[in-house]
Sequence to fold (726 residues):
Amino acid sequence: MTISRRGLLATGAASSALGLLSACGSNTGRDGGGSKGGPKLSQWYHQYGEQGTEQAVKKYAAAYGKASVSVQWRPGNYDQQTAAALLTDSGPDVFEVNGPSLDMIQGKQVADVTDLLKGVEDDFNQAVLAPKRYDGKIWGIPQVIDMQMLFYRKSLLDDAGVKPPATLDELVDAAGKLTNSKVKGLFLGNDAGAGVLGGTPLYAAGLELVTEDGAVGFDDPAAARALGKIRRLYTDKSLLLGAPADWSDPSAFTQGLTAMQWSGLWALPAVQKALGDDFGVLPFPKDGARGKPSVPVGAYAAAVSTRSKHQQAGKDYLKWLWVDRTDYQEDFALKYGFHIPARISLAKKAAALREGAAADAVRYTTDHGFAQPLLWTPAAQTAYQDALNRIIKSGANPDTELRKVVRKVSAELDRVKKK
Amino acid sequence: MTRTAGRLRERNRALWFWVFVGPSVLGLLVFTYVPLGWSVWLSFFDAHNTVTPDTFVGLDNYTALLKDDAFTSSLWTFCVFTLFIVPATYAASLALALMVNRLRRAQAFFRSVFFLPAACSYVVAALIWKMSIFNGVRFGLANTLLGYVGVDQVAWLSTTDPPWYWLVIVTVRLWLQAGFYMILFLAGLQRISPTLYEAAAVDGARPGWQVFRHITFPQLRATSVAVVLLLVINAFQAFDEFYNLLSDARGYPPYARPPLVYLYYTALGQGQNLGLGSAGAVLLALIIAVVTVGQARWFGLGRKEAG
Fold:
């Protein structure tokens, strides 16, 4: 058979059109599973910075016998990717999530996993388990705990005759004394702390973002007072701003650009490597008579998508991985990066967390840890963070700004309670 | 017989038309018009974390947006940005085009040199601006240069008083797009008939400013209108450099938040408020359409030249 030029072009055009259409959304991650029995499950993780994590989670998945689990390691804006994928049938069966958020739960995008934690619920760190609960049920299994704290350089504080700050006022004074032409006193991120601090200063002032009965927790003059002190750090020019790497990376601290830095537990190995013993860690210092030191904690959770055709198989797999296989949980938390296992029993027996700054960090997490409440919606967070930005950088009146945030957050709380 | 052959040919032609045009039309429908229509539909619903909502809220999303300080201030940010970037790009690209047009040698070389930044990604350029040129520490390029003349280091992207971040945002876009608009002006310049310049010379016009003002600039009117139009639309759609210069993992500062960044966080961020985001997209599209049509009418775009 001879093919005419026109025929060839037409076939080409038609096949490329088909190719184009079939390329849309075909990669669900479910194909390519092994030759095991049971369903094929797709599991999504965000791209961890630590080397070896990807291989580790693939190893765990391969060791599961009742389903073929294919792991997708997803770089880029993971939260946005999962949020969009959960709206379609091409999303994952099981996935880790920075939440799940209240809208995800109310939108019935994630399955109830309460049963999976039966008998071991109390062994999970309650501060991080609390935001996974809604309506008396649990919607995600905490994987590992991350926490934030204040790193300080002992030698620089000694040289300046400054003691590790125990109150917010002392932190403001210390940052001022430690600032000179080469080194700044404190690094709270390139936006002067508006992004990373979040509710931390409010908890340090003895308040909270949302109360247990679901009301605004910072409608109090102490809130404006605490935030006003962060503004003072900015106007005193004690804050490092515009560093090449932001607060989550310890380079500004290890390179001597700042004497104190707010960062996370994950930075500890790098700081230890660079500075040896010449550093200490602290919680965010308390403010006022009712205040208490505060340490933000959070945990990515493993969740099951309700759009999955294999919900039960997904639940069985998550129970196996994040409840039964404690050896994998410990490996995941401590062998690649540096996190606290979500299970109290595992955190207690981990050798790497028993001494020095790591032990301090674990103690602060237990004694002063707070997690962002589930009812603190993204809209509330944006309104609060915008206000914080205006207070710190533009000198807006904290009272006025917070009044606006209280109104917005109240409206948000009303909205989510109606559902 | 002939009629049948003619009908067959006609049918064949229609078939071939759809074989070649069909995929594009299908793509346009699936990827442009359906999402557009869906977005308009979503804007009338409470669509948190869903694209198939069932709670009709009428115009609530629209009124909520117009009452929201963050959205209205994002429009204000756009206005400030336009005020800076449109005249700056216009002047820079016209100046470059005039310079390159006058060159007798190596014109192609300089044309390429100035055009080359247009090939660079906005994301890459924004990161270079943020991390090497305008970082706030003493070893950033801009701060090193300021250090030579004894000026203190400046936190370019972190201060609102003075708002140095505008300098960073405007210069990165200026660098990226001036070369492209220079090419448009060059094409415009090359279309001007040399006889006009000869006539002007005969009439005693002085080369330089006088010729530019009375011959070159008026002759570039059509190009100028198109350039300004494109600049304004592009400014409205600004996202990449703003997002990459100012956002971090925890969010985005309220100052210098253009409408698209606002909508990105509303609809695609943790909020996943697709109803509100869609209402914003509809409002933004309407604003761009009104501004474009208004501007086109004002400048007489597409109207036949008199005479």
